[in-house]
Design goal:
The structure holds two protein chains of two kinds. By secondary structure, chain A is mainly beta. Chain A is built from two helices and six strands; from the N terminus they run βββαβββα. In chain A, strands 3-4-5-6 form a four-stranded antiparallel sheet, with no helix packed on it. In chain A, strands 1-2 form a two-stranded antiparallel sheet. Chain B is an alpha+beta fold. Chain B folds into two domains: 83 residues, Gyrase A, domain 2, CATH 3.30.1360; 61 residues, ACT domain (Alpha-Beta Plaits), CATH 3.30.70.260. In chain B, the strands form two sheets. In chain B, strands 1-6-9-8-7 form a five-stranded antiparallel sheet. A four-stranded antiparallel sheet of chain B has the order 3-4-2-5. In chain B, β7 and β8 form a beta hairpin. The radius of gyration of chain B is 17 Å and the shape is globular. Classes of the chains: A mainly beta, B alpha+beta. Chains A and B meet through β2 of A and β7 of B.
């Protein structure tokens, strides 16, 4: 797991200040059907490489962030505020 | 009749003093948490008029702090002035502030937090919400050698004892 997370508001902070929620996925439309929703709620990839996750900066700015990290090298390639991520990209 | 005056959270902690570092409790005056929308009012001006100082916490959030309690009427006026672009929540009862100062203050504090306290990165006037040990705290650098530490009231005594331990080598 990444040790230092570059929070866009607070700067570089240790992972102890954060809570990980899990994969940042595109939310299906309300009418997408049971299969699409089952996938969205329960099924996760476990990729080796880049993976986007929701992280909450619990002990800092208390903002939800989208952290793009490499699951093999622990390298964080990007970290942005979830509110600034486009609605098109990540659903509402 | 029973005495129901509130007791400061750190009433039984004596200030720690040495040439290297001092730790003391700040008066439990006013702590007003402000949450603003996209249009932020001029908080520096509003705080100044109320005899308070604004300290950033996070995007859209501030503490307005002062060493003196704010009278009910003045608080109501200030809360009304914040609306409609921002809202204030009185936290005077809920947060406790401490002052750590001296040439070794940054060295002591960096035992507990991962924030880079180098004066070039964290100059006077900057603030950070972070962990000190396992306790969430809010740091403000008042001066090169002075830090204000704001913490939830229930954690004040525990954090004080942690800080006292971190100071021990300089006392």
């Amino acid at each position: 797991m990444a040790s230092l997370v570059p929070c866009p508001h607070c700067g570089s902070r240790p992972k102890e200040e954060f809570t990980v929620k899990g994969a940042a996925l595109k939310r299906p439309s309300p009418e997408a059907g049971a299969d699409a929703w089952f996938d969205y709620v329960y099924l996760r990839d476990n990729p080796r490489g880049g993976y986007e996750e929701y992280w909450h900066h619990t002990a800092g700015c208390r903002r939800w962030l989208i952290v793009d990290r490499d699951t093999a090298t622990h390298q964080v390639t990007s970290c942005r505020d979830a509110a600034s991520a486009s609605a098109k990209e990540h659903g509402a | 009749m029973a005495d129901i005056r509130s007791l400061p959270a750190l009433a039984d902690r004596r200030p720690l003093t040495s040439p290297q570092v001092t730790l003391s409790a700040l008066p439990e005056g006013t702590v007003l948490q402000v949450i603003a929308g996209p249009k932020t009012p001029d908080l520096t001006r509003l705080a100044g008029e109320a005899g308070l100082v604004a300290r950033a916490i996070a995007p859209g959030q501030w503490f307005l702090v002062g060493n003196r309690p704010t009278a009910h009427q003045d608080m109501r006026r200030l809360l009304a002035m914040l609306e409609p672009d921002a809202s204030g929540i009185d936290q005077s009862h809920g947060r406790v502030r401490m002052l750590m100062e001296g040439p070794m203050a940054a060295a002591v504090l960096s035992k507990g937090t991962a924030v880079d306290l180098d004066p070039t990165v964290f100059p006077p006037g900057t603030t950070a919400a972070t962990l000190v040990g396992h306790v969430s705290a809010h740091l403000t650098r008042l001066d090169n050698e002075a830090f204000e530490i704001t913490v939830l009231r229930g954690f004040a005594a525990a954090l004080w004892d942690d800080l006292a331990l971190m100071c021990a080598e300089y006392l």
